[in-house]
Recover the amino acids of this structure.
């Protein structure tokens, strides 16, 4: 199979647009913190912004109203000169966060080489289980959209640092595209055009990595369900095309940011769980009974901490606690439809949510070692959903670049 990556025609906002108001954090963050999104709304005001082109998941119940507005905004931004082509090639990005400096590469990946199904052996694979019911809402947004704006981050395992880092070392020779502070504690973002001979050098380095990748070149770090939606929409379009049309149709590709797993600033953080409208004493009783049934040692430790506003309890696990916990939560929710589950980034956010909601229970989970990731995927396939987060919520990708996905 050919290298599943190619240069793209990448759009950026025109120079008169405020980039600080344009770039907004990934839509799947702060899903239980409406104050964050209200503050983002207040900061953006009437300015052009990716807040108008994406749907924060906290407002998914308003999708019937918001999705048509998103699609109208896309057309307005294209027709009104808000978005302009900036690059044919790639964009080298540099994100500065509390975790350090994180270089990345914005590129188009071939959805023909991606398969998120269990047991997949494709070159591009999901790192975590895909929840089928979470794909259609995202597909509805993409299906009639004229643009894509990526928050998907792809991982490569490049311990010799041959693909992205050489570009970053010579970034002063590249054409600078943007350099600004991100809103609401997102750190600083810079970007440079990678075109011509520089783009060819990237493809050559990636080809070398491909030849030694043992069947797994890209693993989805963030945005698994958004990439799955892009794949679903492509399959729908693909069925209506000739073989020749399939080769060049823009929807065949998805714009993503590629990051080296071995980057020192690439920190894996746990994704915690929170239950709403739950009787914590009854839950803990069922949970401990399930551990005994699975012949697990019910011993104290810091692998998993369960707590409510009044008390906490901690457990030790021989393996990572998430496979057992997620399986139990899925079973518990099927028996308790009155209880809701959410996924929370950050210890402090978890504590704040639990302390401010009656009938709420938090699950603090230990981190997953990133050095295990590619080997685990090759051996076992996708990990349980929401196993890890690449950094805290404010370190997620911000929407910046765009690409046309309609001919």
């Amino acid at each position: 199979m050919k290298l599943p990556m190619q240069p793209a025609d990448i759009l950026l906002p025109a120079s008169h647009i405020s980039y600080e108001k344009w770039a907004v954090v990934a839509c799947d963050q702060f899903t239980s913190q409406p104050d964050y999104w209200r503050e983002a709304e207040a900061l953006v005001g009437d300015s052009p912004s990716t807040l108008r082109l994406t749907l924060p998941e906290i407002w998914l119940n308003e999708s019937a109203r918001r999705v048509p507005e998103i699609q109208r905004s896309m057309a307005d931004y294209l027709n009104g000169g808000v978005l302009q082509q900036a690059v044919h090639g790639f964009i080298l990005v540099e994100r500065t966060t509390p975790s350090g400096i994180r270089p990345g590469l914005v590129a188009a990946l071939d959805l023909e080489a991606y398969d998120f199904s269990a047991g997949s052996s494709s070159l591009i694979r999901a790192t975590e289980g895909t929840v089928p019911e979470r794909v259609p809402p995202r597909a509805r947004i993409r299906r009639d959209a004229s643009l894509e704006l990526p928050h998907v981050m792809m991982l490569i395992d490049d311990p010799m640092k041959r693909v992205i880092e050489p570009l970053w070392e010579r970034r002063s020779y590249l054409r600078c595209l943007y350099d600004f502070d991100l809103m609401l504690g997102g750190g600083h973002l810079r970007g440079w055009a990678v075109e011509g001979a520089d783009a060819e050098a990237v493809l050559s380095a990636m080809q070398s990595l491909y030849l030694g990748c043992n069947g797994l070149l890209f693993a989805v770090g963030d945005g698994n369900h958004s990439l799955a939606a892009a794949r679903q929409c492509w399959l729908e379009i693909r069925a209506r095309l000739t073989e020749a049309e399939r080769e060049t149709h823009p929807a065949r590709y998805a714009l993503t940011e590629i990051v080296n797993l071995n980057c020192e600033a690439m920190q894996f953080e746990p994704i915690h769980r929170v239950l709403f409208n739950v009787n914590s004493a009854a839950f803990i009783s069922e949970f401990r009974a399930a551990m005994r049934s699975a012949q697990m040692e019910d011993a104290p430790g810091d692998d998993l901490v369960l707590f409510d506003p009044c008390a906490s309890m901690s457990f030790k696990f021989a393996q990572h606690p998430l496979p057992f916990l997620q399986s139990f939560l899925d079973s518990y929710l099927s028996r308790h439809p009155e209880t809701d589950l959410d996924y929370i980034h950050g210890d402090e956010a978890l504590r704040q949510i639990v302390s401010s909601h009656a009938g709420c229970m938090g699950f603090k989970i230990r981190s997953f070692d990133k050095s295990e990731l590619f080997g685990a995927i090759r051996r076992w396939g996708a990990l349980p959903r929401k196993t890890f987060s690449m950094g805290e919520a404010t370190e997620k990708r911000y929407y910046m670049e765009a690409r046309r996905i309609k001919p």
Observations:
- The two ends are 25 Å apart (CA to CA).
- The chain has two domains: 5-266+391-404, 268-390.
- The mean pLDDT is 93.
